[in-house]
Amino acid sequence: MTENATPSATLAAFAAGLQFDAIPAAVLRRTEDLFLDWFASALAGKGARPVEAIESYARAMGPADGSAEVLISRRMTSPHFAAMVNAAASHYAEQDDVHNGSVFHPAAVVFPAALAVAQELGASGRAFLTAVVAGYEVGIRVGEFLGRSHYRIFHTTATAGTLAAAAAAGRLLGLDAATMLHAFGSAGTQAAGLWEFLRDAADSKQLHTAHAASCGLASAYLARAGLTGARQILEGPQGMAAGTSSDADPARLTDRLGTRWATAETSFKFHASCRHTHPSADALLSLMQTHGLQADDIASVTTLVHQGAIDVLGRVTVPSTVHQGKFSMGTVLGLVAEYGYAGLNEFEQHFLAPRVAAFRDRVRMELDPEVDGAYPQRWIGKVLVQTRDGRTLSARVDEPKGDPGNTLTRPELEDKAQRLAAYGKAASVQEMQALIARIWAIADAPHIGRWLTPAA
Amino acid sequence: MTENATPSATLAAFAAGLQFDAIPAAVLRRTEDLFLDWFASALAGKGARPVEAIESYARAMGPADGSAEVLISRRMTSPHFAAMVNAAASHYAEQDDVHNGSVFHPAAVVFPAALAVAQELGASGRAFLTAVVAGYEVGIRVGEFLGRSHYRIFHTTATAGTLAAAAAAGRLLGLDAATMLHAFGSAGTQAAGLWEFLRDAADSKQLHTAHAASCGLASAYLARAGLTGARQILEGPQGMAAGTSSDADPARLTDRLGTRWATAETSFKFHASCRHTHPSADALLSLMQTHGLQADDIASVTTLVHQGAIDVLGRVTVPSTVHQGKFSMGTVLGLVAEYGYAGLNEFEQHFLAPRVAAFRDRVRMELDPEVDGAYPQRWIGKVLVQTRDGRTLSARVDEPKGDPGNTLTRPELEDKAQRLAAYGKAASVQEMQALIARIWAIADAPHIGRWLTPAA
Fold first, then answer.
1. Between B215 and which of A320, B24, B104, B190 could a Cys-Cys bridge form, CB atoms 3.0 to 4.6 Å apart?
2. Which residues of A200-223 are buried (b: 16+ CB within 10 A; e: fewer)?
3. Residues B154, A192: C-beta atoms closer than 8 Å
4. Where are the domains of chain B?
């Protein structure tokens, strides 16, 4: 590329030119981690009403067979509809990954597009991983570029996600830099997704990822077929930022391409609760493990938190729904104390269990100057525990579990994946064990084949 | 509906409840005119590179048979892809209709969705016409609501068009008011389309209508399947206007519903160029006829225009493609001066002809307060001409040819349709004669069947 290349062109050239061998091994391993985490999130969406509505549309409008797999239904169709349904499914349980700086959930848009195209092409595991990294690197930078003003109205996962999906699909299709830029143009001009649905608790969140993944994938195929797009869809005077942001910074689009691996900055969600509860939950878990405590050993817990946690969580004392339970600090700590984890099943089955409720009433929050001062750059967790035998114990974590500096181990990811698959009743423990083994070896796979659908 | 209904809810209830018998006969006849004009515009897109790229995607991703017809290919597929391709095709030749006040091309998004759903359902001609009117009435009001600030960055046909397509599809599917409102929510949160592509003469215009028609249709089917959407996607605090407009007026959404028939305000295009060039072209034609001038008699032309014309046309100085030529005021006026008409064939054959190019360079645009103030309700054309023999002449037209007060007759529409079909090499004269007869009788058709594709 020339020195005068625009940010859009530089980013497209990076995505088109990314080589497997240029990606550090640690980033590739993390990408495999993200793949398992996404795969299981997609399975967790099985049976959910919005997801099944989108799947019913895909069945009605798409072909009854094809080269790409709808994971929740164990059926094959065209890449367009496989990407659409898998994207909807993986954004349902709210357990898919998140990149903090861009406030963007990359997995739910990148993997559906990459998997569908890789299956159609019979691409290698290396090509698949390379494309996924291209999608993450592009989408995260687009999200950072669009900025906080964009996020106030627009669901960045939907908008930046369309570019991310196009980048991943385009890399697998082998688009050259100029053609990738056309794909970006077509993706950006289809990018959409408004937060308005939150006001009505409507189903648009899954529609957003379905739309982003399918339109992004379409943009890459259309570019290959010769459809041209705007060359500065991101930063141009009538482009995405001009239309939907007031604080866009084009320098973010090309920030340390090839040296900063934003993919590896992505966080895994560990607990299924509001993120403001995670630091305290992790500190409590740490304390109980260090001192060998059971829930019954604990007389009271004081969580030392930032003001934002009190603002968001302070309203919920006795939760009446699972959703409210995810915003109840006492409930989250009760689940953690009882089950070692506040996951989807723990919430569904136990959020009002007598022992959890009793623990909940022994928890209080207190503003902590150090924690509050560090927020939001750092999410420190601190707890003080009074034991029934009279001891006062304390613990802290400097980074919530799942963040890059405190990431999930592969055994932890496997455990989470099993729980997600069980939640969706979408795969057996044995099937998941086989899938997990395949994912850990994906860099050596000669072809991305089927995962759950029997051969015809 | 209650007195407290929101504008979105009132508009959705109108679309859901519209009855054939409530539509004045003159509006229905105009709707038939618009259908023929759209049908022929779709045929004119056959063979066009961007259209065929989208059709190749539909062939790859959609089913190889189905209930809905891709007109340019004489093949059947699912409604999703038929709507997608027909929408792309009908917005290629720039001969499809336009509603001035909303700066919106309703046909290219409403008819593709309505035709596909009507074919799938085997709906009657009356049901089809009713749904089309619902789509026009909704889309036009959404376009007016989003306003001029929206149009500066966004292609209103793409954005408002998604709602229009959803309304037409939803009416045919028999959605009740509440379900139609969910369809609006899903449509609005997928609505997209940026003008940035014009800068590069890229192919996004056809992608925009393809996207709007298919996503709007999808929104209606998804609502029927139970997917919920935001209830105030248009006017809510994180809705379309909040994200993409600074001058939105919610009162426009419900302006005289059921008494003002915006459908019949729609203009037919006479010249094959961007509509913003038409008032000036007609004024120049009028001036040349009045004064008996030839192109060579003219030393310079100043077109007195509204700001929107400068925004859309101002960046094209020397066009390098036919498409850019249609957005070049100088080229359009050069064709008009040389050939008396800027039609499809004139563009294809002469847009860079030396005499046209020389005339082009003698044309400039200037903002005119009167023209700008009247826009977009009225598209006044004013030109000032300096003749080689030293005279300064001026002319104005208050309504360009094709506007409601200066509309095309049925013989003129039939002639235009034949020329469009011939341009696309998509139907013979005899086939068009039969299609035209069928369209003029469509209100009596018991079922909307196939048009060009032989029965399997």
1. B190
2. bebbbbbbbbbbbbbbbbbbbbbb
3. no
4. 7-265, 275-401
* Listed residue (A127, A101, A93, A128) closest to A112, CA to CA: A128
| Whole-prediction pTM | 0.92
Q: In what order do the strands lie in the sheet with A298-305?
A: A363-367, A298-305, A381-387, A392-397
In this prediction, the answer to ipTM > 0.95 reads: no
The 10s digit of each residue's pLDDT in B189-201 is 999 999 999 999 8
Please say whether the beta carbons of B229 and A203 come within 8 A: yes
**Which chain A residue has the Cα nearest residue B311?**
A238
Q: Is A228 in Cβ contact with B194 (below 8 Å)?
A: no
Residue whose tokens read 């239309």: A243
Distance in Å, alpha carbon of A179 to nearest chain B alpha carbon: 12
CATH number of B7-265: 1.10.4100.10
Amino acid in position B80: H
Residues of A in contact with B79 (CB under 8 A): 61
Task: Decide if domain B275-401 falls under CATH 3.30.1330.120.
Answer: yes
Total count of residues recorded for chain A:
456
Taking CA atoms, what residue in B is nearest to A196? B238
Query: What tokens does A263 get?
Result: 């993919």
Interface probe with A: pick from B55, B162, B189, most Cβ of A within 10 Å: B189
Give pLDDT, residue B3.
Answer: 54
The residues in B 68-107 lying below 8 A from A, measured between CB atoms, are 78-81
pLDDT tens-digit map of A189-226: 999 999 999 889 899 999 999 999 999 999 999 999 99
